[in-house]
Amino acid sequence: MYDVVVLGSANLDLVVRAERHPRSGETLLGRDYREFPGGKGLNQAVAASRAGASVAFVGAVGDDSAGTRLLDEAGAAGVDIAHVKVVPGVPTGRALITVADDGDNTIVVVPGANLHVPAGLPPGRVLLAQLEIPLPTVVAGFASARADGARTLLNPAPAILLPAELVSTTEVIIPNQHEADLLGGEDALVAAGVRTVVTTMGEDGAAVVRPDETGGGTRRRYPAPRVVPVDTTGAGDAFCGVLAARLASGAGFDDAMRWALAGGSLATTTAGAVPSLPTAAAIEAFLSGAG
After folding, report:
1. pLDDT band at 102 (very low <50, low <70, confident <90, very high)
2. Which residues, other chains included, contact 99 with Cβ-Cβ below 8 Å and sequence gap of 6+?
3. What is the spatial distance between Cα 280 and Cα 11, in angstroms, rounded to a whole number?
4. Measuring CA to CA, how many Å separate 97 from each of 11, 31, 80, 101, 186?
5. 3-12 pLDDT, tens digit each
6. Maximum Cα–Cα distance for the chain, whole Å?
């Protein structure tokens, strides 16, 4: 049994750096262009693996050079890629990313092979998924995982209307502030049946809402460690992957949140998604004040 099974997307990230984001109809000159392995699923799988978990990634890539590169990168990070489907004649997914000088980013994703992610899952203690793959695949995966006694974590990105059968099988949902608003807010998610809502807020840390005896929600804030950001791409994925890894290890929720926030902060200090994902040793050093 794996510690963490990640069900999600794999993309090649095409990243341009510019002074700022262009306004509507405006053309800007970029200063730098690089390609990185990415996709929320692959990012989170690598993050969980580097945080010390045994990880299986369930996804799909095309039979092209980009797909080969993504599989090589994930395998090199210790992720089991045996459950990744290679789809003939379909391009590997791409993400078009603009990173401004302040580290903020905008992203457009072209799914490609991610539309063909298989539904079958290996056994795991924690299932972590996102919404860059077909929704029915996530719904089926969560139902299967809950039936097998696994913990289920959902990163609802991009934010879409969540069917009741997915909400009912989600233990922890992890939106950012924008996604939480699009989903109706933390209290609405708790009222709909989600057991724990973790809203990430960038440099402001995270807010956790859980149901109380009155049917409402209790709220707690967790601060984020301070860093100087270089590129925020992948920070949310680092948070999700590290949180899944720590929960799978049997750590308490507060400890898992502390690690996840440290992992997310560290990820902003290096350019690129996968290159920025920290190891367990780096997170431990950071938390102890040595990093």
Report:
1. confident
2. 15, 16, 17, 18, 105, 231, 232, 233, 271
3. 24
4. 11, 13, 27, 13, 28
5. 999 999 999 9
6. 55
Work out the pLDDT band at 107, boundaries 50, 70, 90: confident
Q: Do residues 59 and 39 touch, judged by C-beta distance below 8 A?
A: yes
Rounded-to-integer distance, Cα 24 and Cα 168, Å: 40
pLDDT tens-digit series, residues 31-60:
999 998 999 999 999 999 999 999 999 999
The string of DSSP letters for the chain reads: -EEEEEE---EEEEEEE-SSPPPTT-----SEEEEEEE-HHHHHHHHHHHTT--EEEE-EEESSHHHHHHHHHHHHTT-B-TTPEEETT-PPEEEEEEE-TTS-EEEEEE-GGGGG-------EEEEEEESSS-HHHHHHHHHHHHHTT-EEEEE--S--PPPHHHHTT-SEE--BHHHHHHTT-HHHHHHHT-SEEEEE-GGG-EEEEEE-TTSSEEEEEEPPPP---S--TTHHHHHHHHHHHHHHTT--HHHHHHHHHHHHHHHTTSSSSGGGPPPHHHHHHHHTT--
Is the pLDDT at 227 greater than 70? The verdict is: yes
User: Looking at the predicted structure, is the pLDDT value of residue 216 above 70?
Assistant: no
The single residue of 32, 148, 237, 254 carrying the catalytic annotation is: 237
Nearest residue to 278 via CA among 226, 237, 228: 237
Q: For each of the domains in the chain, give its residue range(s) and CATH number, in order of start.
A: 2-22+32-282 (3.40.1190.20)
Residue 32 annotated in active site: no
